[in-house]
User: Fold this.
Amino acid sequence: MTQWKFASVIENDKEFKIQGTNIWNHYWHCCNRKVEVIEPSEGQSYFFKEYEIKDGDKSISFVAGEFSNGKMGLFLKVD
Assistant:
């Protein structure tokens, strides 16, 4: 089972890079998997979708969804 760790709260269209790739410059392919994550400051549980983007030969997976107040939470795989 894949584990995910909190990476950041992000804003729509504000540059955010994973492995040097700005996620907003690529199509987010939904992997049709919902992942339970925990919002770090309040400890609330959410179910967010897993996404994948492609940048050349590189494939980047992450989990993202909206917290309250229009803020998005982004989670990365634990190695």
In short: The chain has a mean pLDDT of 91.
